Amino acid sequence: MSTNPHIAIIGAGLGGLTLAKVLQLHRVSCTIYELEASPNVRTQGGSLDLKLESGQRALELAGLTKEFVAIARPEGDNMRMAGKDGKVLFAMQGFDFQDGFEAVQKVERERAEREKSAESKPVGVWDDAIRPEVDRGMLRQLFLDSLAPETIKWGHKLVSILTSNSSSTSHKHQLTFANGITVAADVVVGADGAWSYVRSAITSAKPEYTGVTMVEVQLSDVDTRFPEIGKMIGRGSFITSQDNKALMAQRNANSHVRTYVALRIAEDWVKTCNIPFETDPRETRLKILEYYQGWAPELRKLVELCDDAFTPRRIYQMPIGLKWEHKAGITVLGDAAHLLSPFGGEGANLAMLDGAELALAIASVASPNSDSTETMDSAIIRYEQVMFARGNETAAESDTTMTEFISEEGAARGAAYMRNQFTMHQGLPE
Ligand SMILES: Cc1cc2nc3c(=O)[nH]c(=O)nc-3n(C[C@H](O)[C@H](O)[C@H](O)COP(=O)(O)OP(=O)(O)OC[C@H]3O[C@@H](n4cnc5c(N)ncnc54)[C@H](O)[C@@H]3O)c2cc1C
User: Domain named FAD-binding: which ranges (predicted)?
Assistant: First the structure.
């Protein structure tokens, strides 16, 4: 290992960006290689709620809490759950919840009180919101703006890793990118998402279909164009599910609502369903709505009135309980390591925490201040042990949440599950 190791991070998602930022804070240099040609090639998807013990902890380790507070929406933490008749069965604000209508009233009353006293609150201090929401694109931009210039090499798709077994070569791995460029690296970190190339150099395990496919639809400028829908969704998210289907609406910044239409359905449905997602929005709406016959009219409006863009996504997860032998100088983080079903809302949070903790492990042996005698591989193994345990536990929870929500009983079962979870974790509310 060279004294100033070349650390190659593959992928500029939230996990790779957090890793790079924390490494740079500890004066360890690194380069991110990202397949996309530039930061703005695609929009970044919906909002994320960042959890205290994972996403927010990672931001703290990255020194970006203040910047995060400026773009976060604490009230986004509100969540309501209903069956296909639209009647609320469960509502939650932070970890404070009760069932039914009372809960909704309580959430609304507290919000009104908060707003009344907002002027007397210091800027950047949240009330009781434990998991403030943030738009994914804004969060990513925050990291991009904070990294040293030239940290990211855009348009670099990794297509090959050659590992040398000889101890005489100064760099262990030779990386080749689709653009023909080759670089040498001491440590390669796969932050390259669900279908990670780097992971394939460590294990043959692959993501498996969960049985659920989602179609993402949008309602722009909802409070002006469709105020009744804006009111129904409220400040956070409104999740409705029954009959092995769901309509899950979440409020993003700028009065934008993103809805995930979720169906428990065959893996090849997107190809075989004859829905013209890309060519005929009107027909696509009608065909999707056929799956939601008998659902409350106000819920069907989430699809009836949606904008013209439809994004189908099949939901995959890595086999739960997976571990592998450490491979010298190579590791993975985030979705590359433990792709989860998105129903727990944990994937980005864990990717960021993995990134921050891996950075601390690497910095403990590679930062200019380090007097550690530990090897780089031993430091990475320390990270991997914690990451495996946490990833597998969270994957199992996210899988259970999905099974409960996308079921015949849907929200009724999901609400009972949520009540149990919260009761277990912190006791019943007064
Ligand atoms: C519908 C949906 C909703 C979700 N909602 C939430 C939520 O509310 N909360 C939450 O915490 N999580 C959520 N998630 C999960 C979250 O999106 C992921 O867990 C998170 O983005 C993983 O981050 P990552 O950095 O590991 O990977 P990614 O964000 O996937 O980033 C990987 C990067 O690697 C690049 N890349 C891939 N291959 C290569 C290659 N060969 N060479 C170079 N670069 C490469 C990609 O272009 C990409 O930029 C959701 C996921 C889905 C699908």
Answer: 7-367
